[in-house]
Amino acid sequence: MSARTSQATPRDDAIVVAVDGPAAAGKGTLARRLAAALNLVYLDTGSIYRAVAAKLLAGGGDPADADAASRVARALSSADLDRDDLRAEGVGAAASVVSAHQAVREALLEFQRAVAFDPPAGRAGAVLDGRDIGTVVCPDACAKLFVTASLEERARRRHEELLGRGEARIYARVLEDLKERDERDAARDAAPMTAAADAVVLDTSDLDVDAAFERALDIVRARCGVTAG
Ligand code: DC
Fold this sequence. Notes:
By secondary structure, the chain is an alpha/beta fold.
């Protein structure tokens, strides 16, 4: 995927916030709200891996095929991030498989860094959410959050979300899928999902959306030296 700048160099004053964590922990909602509150651009990096997976599947490709997946990753365009099948059944799991290929990760790295370090005019910086933002993509982010929740609570939320979209699914199956995805994302050799040493771990199991947001906002303001929204 081509970046807006070939070599992303940090804009001196850009605020970069890394939000990592497992699937269905609430990091997307949190990251989007942080971005809105602090005038930052938001990048959902999972959607980039989903776009690679969706495009590959649509063309009859196998997510386990590293060469095929990296070809798709290198040819990805911004328009692919707007595909309407990114949340389709099976795409999350396929994204987890394609994202384990080192060549796929390399093809997508510079684009993510360009958004982080060279945000659009008028924005103070960026919030990126994913699995390896604090460890690999933006190791110098001023604030790093690792957002998590118990497997059961994440499965409950994802199940509810699917039902809300009219997609009937068995809770136990949703839980198994999440568990499998967590294990694959955390066990891979290439940029495994893990909390950076300097990340604040935010367990949202017992927090509602507003409470999680307030806590995250306090952490980001303190760490990045932001006094006003
Ligand atoms: O956040 P998500 O569920 O949309 O992500 C889909 C998959 O993409 C996830 O299972 C692992 C992969 N991913 C990754 O490896 N690195 C990221 N920064 C973001 C997502």
